[in-house]
Request: fold
Amino acid sequence: MACFIVSAAEAAVVKAVEKVEEKKEIKRAESGEEVSSTRIPLSRKLKWLSYMLMGGSFLLMFEHIWHGEIVPWFPFLSAMADQADMMEMFHEMATVGVCMALLITFVWAGICIVADRIVKRAEDPVPEV
Reply:
């Protein structure tokens, strides 16, 4: 019903953290601090996470619109019209929504670990045979 809201909220928080980290990286570069050219910046990794969360939220929102769970009139979520449906919706957000957001975050963490290893491998010199 409204499980996509959890991922959308996490995406908004991640986007704000990404912008703060981006500004810090720019300040470090302007101050002359050495920036590694072979290291993936944290702001770029956070951008990956925000794209994954926003994309998933958008697709789920479209699916909920398709099935009539999101309507173009107030309160916009069909489950908000009835008290029992509201409780079911909040339960779904707390279980399914949180699990989906955590799964996306764990997949992103795995992607970051693999990307760091690939960059590190490319940085290391190739041993001669």
Observations:
- DSSP finds three helices and no strands in the chain.
- The two ends are 59 Å apart (CA to CA).
